[in-house]
Amino acid sequence: MAWGILDTAMNAFDNRGLVGFADRAVSIPTGGVDTLDFDLSPEGQEFLYQSGYKAAGEFFAGNPSGRNSLGQTPP
Predict the structure, then answer these.
(1) pLDDT given for residue 44 in this prediction
(2) How do the domains of the chain map onto residue ranges?
(3) Is the pLDDT of residue 41 over 90?
(4) Which of 12, 31, 34, 48 registers the highest number of CB atoms within 10 A of its CB?
(5) What is the C-alpha separation between 44 and 20, in angstroms, rounded?
(6) pLDDT (0 to 100) of residue 18
(7) SS in 3 state form for the chain?
């Protein structure tokens, strides 16, 4: 039960943070992989890798500005 509470809290924290940084964050669909699943099968690892690779490609294809929360862009 403690793992369930921790998992719920971590997901809620991640979702809350995403709202404030949505234009600068890559959201990676994890399918059925739990946040605290550290014993992934090779298939699960490959799924997460491909999912992250695709999400990152789509993010950068949108040509993000790179501005931070203060409106500054790195040199």
Answers:
(1) 93
(2) 2-61
(3) yes
(4) 48
(5) 29
(6) 59
(7) CHHHHHHHHHHHHHHHHHHHHHHHCCCCCCCCCCCCCCCCCHHHHHHHHHHHHHHHHHHHHCCCCCCCCCCCCCC
Tokens at 22, concatenated? 């949505």
pTM to 2 decimals?
0.63
User: What is d(CA 59, CA 63) in angstroms, rounded to the nearest whole number?
Assistant: 7
CB atoms within 10 A of CB 25: 14
Is residue 13 within a helix (H) or strand (E), and if so which, with residue range?
helix 2-21
Give 35's contacts (C-beta < 8 A, 6+ positions apart): 7, 10, 11, 14
Residue 36's φ and ψ, nearest 5 degrees, are: -100, 20
Say how far residue 31 (Cα) sits from the centre of its chain.
12
CA quadruple 52, 54, 57, 59: dihedral sign: negative
Token pair belonging to 72: 């500054």
Read off the pLDDT band of 19 (50, 70, 90): low
